[in-house]
Structures are given as structure tokens and as C-alpha cells.
Amino acid sequence: MSSTASILDGNSFKASDAAALDPRTRELTRRRRVLGDAYRLFYRHPVEVVRGRGAHAWDAQGNEYLDMYNNVPSVGHAHPRVVEAVHRQMSELNTHTRYLHEAILDYADDLLSTMPDGLDEVMFVCTGSEANDLALRVGREYTGGRAYIATAEAYHGNTALVSAHSPSLAGAETMDPTLRVVTPPDTYRLGDETAEGAGAAWLARIEAAIAEIEASGDGFAGLILDSSFSSDGIFLGETGMIRAALDLVHAHGGVVIADEVQPGFGRTGEAFWGFARQGLGPFDAAGRPADPFVPDLVTTGKPMGNGFPIAAMAARHEVLEAFATKRPYFNTFGGNPVAIAAAQAVLDVIRDEGLQRRALDVGAQVREGLREVALSHPAIGDVRGSGQYTGLELVVDRETKEPATALALDLLEELRERRLLTSVCGPNNSVLKLRPPLAFESSDVPRLVETLDASLTALGA
Asked: Per the record's keyword annotation, is Transferase included, yes or no (predicted)?
């Protein structure tokens, strides 16, 4: 497991950085202490963002930045249709879900229509953390087991239960004693994105973890998984790469919890949901495979409302029933009418603006451009991803594939100075995580490529 809370501390401001700041920024960082010391800021020189539009943001001095990281405003900063929908509904009514409201039911049907048959019920909450907390509880109730499997750098949220199932926080949080941790299917170091390479190796690790759980008497509950392995370093691989491992979980009576906070809502391009990439056979225009993989529980969060707090857990009826018949569940703000208005607008924008297809096409252009940059910068070891989700791994040496952590963190600062925002992931914070709003367009690609090239040149890499 991780020795530090790397997902929070890798690209973070530290008090020792304050002396180098301009007076206003230094004062804001000082005042931020009122929020408590647990909070983290990005960058040695934090950015004071005051407005945004599409895939672009502006700071208090009027400087414009290309946002290559933010999946919170998934369809773009301040998208006018989302703004209008929220304003309209707030002007009429906002309350909780213990009253009837047709828009909530309409959205539930619409959301479920994007998922494979079998996922037929949905519960609304406010955050991805709440959704994953609920899913872990539901899975335990359904299976009667307690032990889950998670990947080595996974981050699934910040409730007590979910933090205990987020190995990336292991240096700061106590992990659940029944949790089993497996390394992700590293398509870079195994040198193979297919089921015969990285996928087969991962299947063996899942099989061993299940065997250990069954021998221990802890009881197998299932697997909680971000299918893009976002915090682990972004290993999407080919479609179907981990299907055999997911089927194995089902064969042993466990549930698969698909955490879609990062890969969901069209980001991977090939499919609307990240887990759908594990289906087999050709994909149709809606991103549905001929032989779909159907998880038992699907969770989503921040991209769902373009930053307005709304999240959800979708479920197979028989899985949720075991939980729902034993206890009521009520979330005061989950699925309130204003949040639903935001979420419906997001779904409508993704479809009407063809953002899933754009993610597929523009993402391919991004990786093509980055591979061109790699020809003259040996520090780039690998460029990988799908749709509008790209990992760029930096190495000390391409032969040894030793992670270049210090370079990656310096590169983030250089990019920030050149007005491009992103962050890092992976166990060594050596992978640039390029995950812009889906409003990112072909016209933005040259700026990304040129800025990266110039930044690496400036760092002598």
C-alpha cells in the first residue's frame, strides 16, 4: 500500500513555498488557514481562479489558462444551458426527495437508459463519496461478505468507510482490515494492453486475492473499481482488457462496484460509461457493446451536475433489494429539484453537442500530438489513454522505466507558469493526468502540444 497520501500531497502547496509568492497570493494562503490545515491547494504558486468558460479559466489578474484537468465542469465551465436550468428551477422550488417531483423520475429514467439492461434502480446523493459509501454497504448486505478488493492507488472518496477502501490514502488513513489490495494492470510496464498481457496478469492477481479472502473467512463482498485506473496511473488498455477478471468476481458471488466519477459520462469516447468498455464485440453509436458487461452497482459524482452537487448509485434491483428491505435511506439534498435540473442539462448537452464523439476524436488528436513531442523528449516514457483521458508518464530512463517524480512535479509548475493547468497521478506522481472538460476542442490541441514541448525544453528534458 502507499506510504503517503500521494493523491492529495503530490502536487500541493506547502507552507515553505509562501516566501516566493506575490503579496496577494501569500495573504490568501495565510487566510486559508481558517479552513483548517487538512485542506490542500494545487501548485507551489497557487492559482486564484475567478471565472471560466468551456475548457478555459481566468485568474484574478485576467490571465487565461487552458484547463487540462477539471472534470468537475464536465461539459465546460459555466455552460449556459446548465446555468439557465439551475436558475430556472431555483426560481420555482427546491426541496428534498420526500415529496413527489416528476423531474426526478424523468431524470432517473433518462440516466438508467444510458446503462445496460439489468441496472434498473437509482438512488441520488450529493457526492461520489456518499455514492461509494452507500454502494459498499449495499454490496455487503447483498453478499453477506465484508472483504472488498481495490487497486493499489485507488481513491474512492472521503467518508470513513470509503477512505478505508482507498489505498491511496493508506499513509494517512487506517485501511479496512478485510480489504485486499492488488496492483493495476500496468499496460506500460507489461508492454501489452491486451487480455493476453496486462489483463491476464491482473486476472491472476484478482484470483489470488479472492482465494485469500475465501480462505480467511472474511467473506467475499466484491471489487470496487475505477475502470480507468485513474489514480493508479491511467491504464485503460484495449476494450475488454479486464473483462475476465470482472466475470471472475461474479463467478465467486461478489459484486462489482463501478466507480464512474472519473471515466463516466462519455469521457472515454468509445462508451458512455467506463465500465462499458469491458463489453465485448462491436460498439454501437450509443457506446453499447454487443456483449455488455453489467456491474452490480454504478456510482457517479461531480461530472454529473457540472459541478453542482449531485451524485448517484445505480443498481440491479435484486442487489439493492437486500439493503432496501432492511433499512430506510434518506439523503436530504440528494436528488433535489435544482440538482436534478443541473444533471438533466448535462445529459442533454452531452447528447446534443456530441461530446462523447468529440472526446473520442479530439482525444486521439491529443495523444498523436503528445507522441510527436515524445520523439524529441526522452523523458516521456509512455502516452496512453482513451477519449478525453490521457496519461503521460515521465521516466528517468526509457530502458529501465524508472519514474521521474521530481521532473513531473517541476513540469507541472512550468506548465502552470505557461498558463496550462493539470496534475499528476500514479504511485510515484510521475504520470501527467490530462483530463480536461469535454468542451476541450481540436483548436486547443496545438496549444497543449506546444506548451508541453516548450516546458520540457525549458527543464532540459
From this structure: yes
Q: Which of 421, 404, 425 minimizes the C-alpha distance to 413?
A: 421
Q: State the residue range of the domain holding 382.
A: 6-75+354-458
One domain, residues 211 and 149: yes
Q: What is the DSSP letter of 405?
A: H
Sign of CA dihedral 222, 272, 261, 336: negative
Residue 69 shares a structural domain with residue 157: no
Higher pLDDT, residue 349 or 172: 349
3, 57, 132, 380, 418 from 415: Cα distances, Å = 27, 14, 33, 15, 5
Size of the chain in residues: 461
Do residues 111 and 59 share a domain?
A: no
Global pTM value: 0.94
Average pLDDT value for residue range 25-38: 78
Predicted confidence (pLDDT) per residue in 295-316, tens digit: 999 999 999 999 999 999 999 9
Picking from 352, 377, 402, the residue at the C-terminal end of a domain is 352
147 lies in some domain? yes
Residue 345 and residue 358 in one domain? no
Instruction: Write the pLDDT tens digit of every residue in 58-108.
Output: 999 999 999 999 999 999 999 999 999 999 999 999 998 889 999 999 999
Give the C-alpha separation, 103 to 88, whole Å: 13
Identity (one letter) of the amino acid at 36?
Answer: G
- SS3 at position 335: coil
Rg (CA), the chain: 21
Number of domains in the chain: 2
Residue 242 makes CB contacts below 8 A (sequence gap 6+) with 185, 199, 202, 203, 227, 278
Residue 323 forms part of a structural domain = yes
The CATH number that applies at residue 370 is: 3.90.1150.10
Classify residue 1: in a domain, yes or no.
no
Furthest-apart CA pair in the chain: how many Å? 62
| b/e map 120-146, b = 16+ CB within 10 Å | ebbbbbbbbbbbbbbbbebbbbbbebb
Has residue 5 got a pLDDT over 50? no
Please list the helix, strand and coil fractions of the chain in percent, rounded to the nearest 5, in that order. 40, 20, 40
**Domain limit, last residue, from 321, 352, 383:** 352
pLDDT in tens, 347-406: 999 999 999 999 999 999 999 999 999 999 999 999 999 999 999 999 999 999 999 999
Gap between the Cα atoms of 192 and 179, Å rounded: 28
